[in-house]
Design brief:
heterodimer; A: alpha/beta; Rossmann fold; 9-stranded mixed β-sheet; two-stranded antiparallel ribbon; 6 helices; globular; B: alpha/beta; 16 strands; binds flavin-adenine dinucleotide; binds adenosine monophosphate
Chain lengths: 248, 309
């Protein structure tokens, strides 16, 4: 079976985002960009399933600017077999991404799509669920552990009270949570090899998907800034201070 | 505008997470609540008492016992023919179901709203809360998840909603529930605790976390949270994680112990009323948001603090 892994190019998680002074968005000029961390976990899981003989091919897909190539190359260097870049300079909302992915699924017929649970830029947490709905597939969100057995996948999910295990028919969509695995680093030889792996380029129009936004961003502003308070000398002073502010 | 609010529950008790969503919905229009579950009649009765709830729809069916999104979403989508907005709490249940409903309706979900500005305009956090976007939806129907800490809780008494049974539920045959590991605890839930004591990587082991953090939390009657690093290292269960990709909390008092204050952690707790930090590194970023800071070794300071309370 094939596994499709969508990867998004996002601001690197170590960078502190700055709001542009004109309120039009977050300043991404000259900012380090990386693969969404949850998508690294997805790629890792797909590769492990392949290594375990549960899958034959791992295809990485990104919808984004030409530079998203770099992030797809990282996916290839980690071990994905080939990549598809759907090029656009527009910001594509999760619903439109899900529609494009649904079209790619129709062409490629993967048995499993592994998305991240959340992109760390828009914090939407919806693309995987939307894709599952569009395809009429089951969804295993916030995965902590997955196991494929024949035509079924068992997904242990991180939920508010603890863990929940569900079983889904394949094909299905899984979204990854932080504890699913620890992604590997690509080795130098694998980075070299990745340069020769195939990468297709498409556009949203090739799939006939209308990507015009449904949500217009009117302004983007800074949240209220918290001021640092004071440091206390010792535990006695801490207790006194806690009492003074009515905390205890 | 007619809204439909997804009630958070465990088939017996309505959860507090519902109440902030009712408040958000009431800012849009008439509030209709929806209980999906199995053997959940009493939840319907509790929801009907919430101030501001006009009607409670109860879909009680074995296929809905675990609120599997494959079974719940089509039912909700069909109810949306007669409602204008669907609002769910931004809990793992809400986040699982709402986007599936949105896709069935062909609308963009507005995730994790912080405020209702008008019928079609909302604010929501992006980039781990380092920016707040004001967004206007052009979709005819709205699908929204609500950040619980951003809205007052509606009163659990005072309402007298009418209860209506909803039929039409069925098993989509795509998924099934296998098991659940839910920790039973006497401690306040993180999202409703007045005081939270959170521990980080510095605790060093599950054993030390238990010996250092738990007695302090017991003394304060506090909920216990953790950084991602502490969860990843297995000191505490997954659902203790506070942050951008964990729980969002805003208690009266948040004590961050041996936590550096990465932006992903701050995203989950920086709306707390009073932040207290104990860290041995005086330059730790957590001190930039802490109202009260103590530079000390936590293994000395925390037991001493517990003893002096
Ligand atoms: C995609 C993604 C999502 C993430 N989501 C979250 C999230 O939701 N929540 C979250 O918390 N993190 C999240 N993180 C992780 C985050 O980036 C940090 O790595 C994490 O918060 C660090 O945890 P920490 O502060 O416990 O550990 P560290 O950063 O290692 O800090 C430990 C602190 O303890 C102090 N210390 C050490 N010994 C002592 C002592 N004896 N006494 C007192 N102080 C001591 C040190 O000075 C240091 O400041 C996420 C990361 C990614 C990539
Ligand atoms: N532009 C994109 N290209 C590829 N994958 C995406 C894109 N946007 C979202 N995704 C996938 O959907 C997941 C969740 O994103 P979101 O719903 O935006 O929080 C990500 O982790 C990716 O797996």
């Amino acid at each position: 079976m094939k596994i499709l892994v969508p990867v998004k190019r996002v601001i690197d998680y170590n960078v502190k985002p700055r709001v542009k002074s004109d309120g039009s968005g977050v300043d991404l000029a000259n900012v380090k960009m990386s693969m969404n961390p949850f998508d690294e976990i997805s790629i890792e899981e797909a590769i492990r399933l392949k290594e375990a003989g549960k899958a034959e091919e791992v295809i990485a897909v990104s919808v984004g600017p030409q530079k998203a190539q770099e992030n797809l190359r990282t996916a290839l260097a980690m071990g994905a077999d080939r990549a598809i870049l759907v090029v656009t300079d527009e910001e594509v909302e999760p619903l439109a991404v899900a529609k494009i992915l649904a079209k790619i699924v129709a062409e490629e017929s993967p048995k499993l799509v592994i998305c991240g649970k959340q992109a760390i830029d828009d914090d939407s947490n919806q693309t995987g669920q939307m894709l599952a709905a569009l395809l009429g597939w089951g969804q295993g969100t916030f995965a902590n552990e997955v196991a494929i057995e024949g035509d079924e996948i068992t997904v242990k999910r991180e939920i508010d009270g603890g863990l929940q295990t569900v079983k889904l028919n394949l094909p299905a969509v899984v979204t990854t949570d932080l504890r699913l695995n620890e992604p590997r680093y690509a080795s130098l030889p694998n980075i070299m090899k990745a340069k020769k792996k195939p990468m297709d380029e498409k556009t949203p129009a090739d799939y006939g998907v209308d990507i015009s936004p449904r949500l217009a961003t009117i302004t983007v502003t800074e949240p209220p800034v918290r001021q640092a308070g004071e440091k206390v000398e010792d535990v006695d002073a801490l207790v006194a201070k806690l009492k003074a502010v009515g905390a205890i | 505008m007619k809204t439909l609010v997804l009630v958070e529950h465990d088939n017996k008790t309505m959860k507090d997470a519902t109440l902030a969503v009712v408040t958000a919905a009431s800012q849009l229009g008439e509030v209709h609540a929806l209980v999906i579950g199995s053997g959940c009649v009493s939840v319907g009765e509790q929801a009907a008492k919430v101030a501001g709830v006009a009607t409670v729809h109860v879909a009680d069916d074995p296929s809905l016992e675990h609120q599997l999104p494959e079974n719940a979403a089509p039912l909700i989508a069909s109810l949306m023919e007669t409602h204008d907005a669907f609002l769910a709490p931004a809990t793992t249940t809400g986040k699982n179901i709402a986007p599936r409903v949105a896709a069935l309706l062909d609308v963009m979900q507005i995730s994790d709203i912080l405020s209702v500005e008008s019928e079609d305009t909302f604010t929501r956090p992006i980039y781990a809360g380092n920016a707040i976007a004001r967004v206007k939806s052009s979709d005819a129907k709205k699908v929204i998840t609500v950040r619980g800490t951003a809205f007052e809780k509606a009163a659990t008494e005072g309402g007298s909603g009418t209860i209506e049974a909803i039929g039409g539920a069925s098993d989509a045959g795509l998924s099934s529930f296998v098991s659940e590991e839910i920790a039973k605890s006497e401690r306040p839930e993180l999202t409703s605790a007045k005081i939270i004591v959170s521990g980080g990587r510095a605790l060093g082991s599950a054993d030390k976390f238990e010996k250092v953090i738990t007695p302090l939390a017991d003394k304060l009657g506090a909920g216990i949270g953790a950084s991602r690093a502490a969860v990843d290292a297995g000191y505490v269960p997954n659902d203790y994680q506070v942050g951008q990709t964990g729980k969002i909390v805003a208690p009266e008092v948040y004590l961050a112990i041996g936590i550096s204050g990465a932006i992903q952690h701050l995203a989950g707790m920086k709306d707390s009323k009073i932040i207290v930090a104990i860290n041995k590194d005086e330059d730790a970023p957590i001190f930039q948001v802490a109202d009260i800071g103590l530079v000390a070794d936590l293994f000395d300071a925390v037991p001493e603090l517990t003893g002096k309370l």
